[in-house]
Amino acid sequence: MYANVLLKLLERTWESPVFGNSFSAGVLAKRDVVLRQIGAISDRFAAEIEPYLTTGMPGTTEKEVKKIIAQIAPKTVGFCPALVAGELDDTKRLSNAGVAIGLMYWGDQTMDRGDATMPVAVQLLCGQPVAPELAQNATAQAQLAALRHIKQTIDRLAKPEDAPLVYACYDDQVLLHEWRLHELSQAFLKAKNKEAFLERHGADIARYMIVDAGFPSVASTLYAVYRQHNAMLPSLPDIYAEPAIITLLQICNAVVRVADELGDWQMDAGDHPEWGVFTLNLFNQAHPTLLRAFFEAAGIHNETQIASLTDAFMGFHANPAARRMHGDYIVETFFEHARTYVANLATDTQQTYELYITLCKRVLEIGYVNKIGDIAMGGE
User: Fold this and answer.
1) Res 375: pLDDT
2) For residue range 68-116, what is the model confidence (pLDDT) as tens digits?
3) What CA–CA distance (Å, rounded) separates 359 from 223?
4) What are phi and psi of 160, to 5 degrees?
């Protein structure tokens, strides 16, 4: 169903185009073994997530549910168990990881497609105040019931000390901030003065874009599974107490967001309503205030580089050749920024948190491949 898309995604990722050494040299040599494991995880993922999505999509046919699974599976399975590359023999927990990420992605994607009730379900999930008449909506309640399986799934794959930090990546970081970005996107469409809107809200838009990129949700989920097999690894509370790692996560979030924005600029413009309604996008709404706030949050402070990146964003839509040239330059510059940061981490930090940093590198590899966009990843 989605095997060809997934295989292309994995092989491009295993080639390690960003770092060159994120995966062991033996990954491609044992390709068939790894693919069999991924196949088993994929099958289990599909079987486990189907009843949750059926609950969350009342009135939807089995065929329609399976179509949604086929759309999200390459990204969720590719973004998670495949990054283990055969290092763990734990089909159960790795499929749990795929289910948790898949449910989060389903909530995100459903909001992106203009669903009226998913924002309500997300607000309820995250403890935000909601008007009673909205909170009682039957569809929103069904969606909420499905989203609550994220926490239950994480509790099955992570140690008790790690689980709360993993879950926070899903609800507070991704889903809540995606809802906030969704609200600002709708407000932007209604604003009479678009430039003034971006000037006023640019800093918030940049922050929401970076936080909801979802990088830690993948890296920390995978790490939690590794800790089930090696209790000597530092706990996630210990890792999250290390400032250098928090900065790394911030940079990585910004980098994968840029790749995602490039891949989805047409979809985010609303050109493919079957895939998504209008959403603010760095390449489509390249306002100086928004861009500078984004660069600042990403740790890019060199004024010459900021000016060059700003020019590239502003000139992106000049013509097709400009889109290719500027898009490539922007993405490569951000990934080089991440490479430089990782290379310059203190030796003791690299040694103490070696596995977590390796997983971050691997998620960056898949983020690089992600620049092809959601529509291509969905196999369409």
Assistant:
1) 46
2) 998 888 778 766 667 887 888 899 999 999 999 999 999 999 998 889 9
3) 7
4) -55, -35
Amino acid letter at 96? N
Using CA atoms, how far apart are residues 68 and 86, in angstroms rounded to an integer? 27
Enumerate residues 6+ apart whose C-beta is below 8 A from 119. Answer: 111, 179, 182, 183
For 378, phi and psi rounded to 5 degrees? -75, 0
The pTM of the whole model exceeds 0.90? yes
Q: How many CA atoms lie within 13 A of 107 on its CB side?
A: 35
The 3-state DSSP class for residue 242 equals coil
Q: Which residue has the tokens 């984004």?
A: 294
Q: For 344-353, write each residue's pLDDT tens digit.
A: 999 999 999 9
Q: Compute the 3-state secondary structure of the chain and give helix, strand, coil in percent, each to the nearest 5.
A: 75, 0, 25
Mention every residue, 6+ apart, whose C-beta is less than 8 A from residue 68. Answer: 53, 57, 106
d(CA 261, CA 281): 6
User: Which tokens in the block code for residue 102?
Assistant: 């898949």
- Please state the separation of Cα 60 from the chain's center in Å: 26
- At 226, the amino acid letter reads Y
Burial bucket for residue 286 (CB in 10 Å: 0-12, 13-18, 19+): buried
Virtual torsion, Cα 345, 347, 349, 350, nearest 10 deg: 80
> 214's torsion region: left (phi>0), alpha (psi -120 to 50) or beta?
left
Is the CB of residue 316 less than 8 Å from the CB of residue 309? no
Cα separation, 99 vs 339, in Å, equals 30
Q: How many residues does the chain have?
A: 380
